[in-house]
Specification:
94 residues; alpha+beta; HU Protein, Chain A; three-stranded antiparallel sheet; 5 strands
Length: 94
């Protein structure tokens, strides 16, 4: 599902809301999650899961085409850990 499909499904279930308002709400929520992760904060949505960042150390990689060594800088990557309720629902236990 992409963002526009999410907005469309929410709009179908909430006919009293304007689609542009739903787009603004969904966009604001996602922007706040991104800003929190950029600050190094953890974002937890109870029953759904938690977003955090993980540091990847600098390393020497290989160019798969040429086999040359390539320096890969340190970076932070987003990590998502599912919540207990989500895992239970996915496995048909709820």
């Amino acid at each position: 599902m992409i963002k526009s499909e999410l907005v469309q499904r929410i709009a179908e279930r909430n006919t009293h809301l304007y689609q542009r308002d739903i787009e603004n709400i969904v966009g604001s929520i996602l922007d706040e999650v991104v800003k929190a992760l950029a600050r190094g904060d953890r974002v937890e949505l109870r029953g759904f899961g938690a977003f955090s960042t993980k540091e990847r150390a600098a390393r020497v990689g290989r160019n798969p085409r040429t086999g040359d060594s390539v320096k890969v800088d340190q970076k932070f990557v987003p990590v998502f850990k599912t919540g207990k309720e989500l895992r239970m629902r996915l496995n048909g236990k709820a």
